[in-house]
Design goal:
2 domains; 5 helices; 234 residues; Aminopeptidase
Length: 234
């Protein structure tokens, strides 16, 4: 079973890959890892963040016109500097893990792995498919299509870091939920990572997602916390 530290390591690797592949960058300052990527500026799992370091990160985000700064923390880290630097406490990720042999079988005809832009991906996903084209492959995007309407209904990503695979950005649009598409998406990205040599999958679940992942073989290994600063976009 993966540890919380391993979950955090995979999450950090995913944020770095997204930033570096999609036109952003990764910054290491005073031992702190900042990523400037598609979802804004993020500070990933600092052990002892200081108010000054946090304020420098916020200033950098403001200079770049970012709308949000996020900080991902381990549960044991002192949160006092976050409040002093103007951050607000956010949602608590539930870290979960499963051996890939125990995840659902990848056999849903409504789900497809994609690498190239196209109508099936949905407009928001086009640029990010650059991640799925990295060679040798380390990231996979699965999309769901509603069987009746043929409409794009959801997507999920997996990303391999060493022998662990992270599952990220999984969503099924509200109109298409309760049809098994979430299970199908999860199975597809887990199977793709397993074929590349990953042995175990990890993810962070919202309270709403924890039930689905538990049903699909994932077990809670710990929790974390997020803090956020919302900025005026330039």
């Amino acid at each position: 079973m993966a540890t919380v530290a391993e979950c955090e390591r995979v999450q950090t690797a995913w944020f770095r890959a997204r930033a570096e592949t999609l036109g952003g960058e990764c910054l290491v300052e005073d031992g702190l890892v900042w990523t400037d990527g598609p979802d804004g500026m993020n500070l990933l799992f600092p052990e002892a963040p200081t108010v000054d370091a946090l304020r420098r990160g916020v200033a950098r985000a403001e200079q770049r016109g970012r709308g949000i700064v996020g900080v991902w923390l381990g549960a044991e880290v002192d949160e006092t500097p976050l409040a002093e630097a103007g951050f607000e406490r956010g949602w608590a990720p539930c870290w979960m893990s499963a051996t890939l042999a125990e995840t659902p079988v990848d056999d849903d005809a409504r789900i497809a792995l994609i690498r190239e832009p196209g109508s099936l991906a949905g407009g928001f996903e086009q640029e990010r498919l650059a991640l799925a084209r990295i060679e040798p492959a380390i990231a996979w995007c699965a999309v769901a299509r509603d069987a009746e309407s043929e409409r794009f209904a959801g997507r999920a990503w997996s990303f391999r870091s060493g022998d662990l695979a992270g599952v990220f950005d999984m969503a099924v649009w509200p109109a298409f939920r309760r049809r098994g598409l979430g299970t199908g998406l999860l199975a597809a990205v887990c199977a793709a990572a397993a074929r590349s040599g990953a042995r175990e999958a990890v993810l962070n679940a919202t309270p709403e997602g924890e039930l689905l992942y538990s049903w699909c073989g994932f077990t809670r290994v710990g929790t974390g916390i997020t803090w956020w600063r919302h900025l005026a976009e330039g």
